[in-house]
Amino acid sequence: MQAEWMAPEILRNEPSDEKCDVFSYGVILWELCTLLQPWEGMNPMQVVGAVGFQQRRLDIPGGVDPAVAEIIRRCWQTDPRMRPSFSEIMATLRPLLKNMPANQPTRKRAQQTDD
User: Fold this and answer.
1) Structural domains of the chain, ranges and CATH numbers in brackets
2) pLDDT (tens digit, 9 = 90+) per residue, 79-109?
3) Cα–Cα 20 to 30 A to 98, which of 37, 54, 55, 71?
4) Where are any strands of DSSP class E within the chain?
């Protein structure tokens, strides 16, 4: 994995657990919401310094659903113990999926194939 998606504790070569994956998931969720590359224009060493040692995080645009923005922020907590579990993340996302407009693809529709 590249530095852009890594948790601060990984970048600092500290002990880690599944909460580092939660941090990375927050970056991926940010990508899905913004359609942007994380830390574009920065080289990996700059990302290590910014995320791992300066506690910087990507900007979450105002147009991102507030509930999703809050998930992203929680995933990016500096203290891994403060990050949500994947079960907590899913519990927050499920109600949002129910409120998606009908023209948005859902998992069931995405799995259908033309025969």
Assistant:
1) 3-111 (1.10.510.10)
2) 999 999 999 999 999 998 887 776 555 555 4
3) 37
4) none
Question: Which element (helix H / strand E) includes 2?
Answer: none
pLDDT for position 110: 47
For the purposes of burial, counting CB atoms within 10 Å of the CB of 5, is it exposed (0-12), middle (13-18) or buried (19 or more)? buried
pTM here?
0.84
Contact residues for 12 (Cβ-Cβ < 8 A; gap 6+) = 52, 53
Give residue 36's pLDDT: 96
The span from the first CA to the last CA of the chain, in angstroms, equals 37
Q: CA-to-CA distance for 75 and 26, rounded, in angstroms?
A: 5
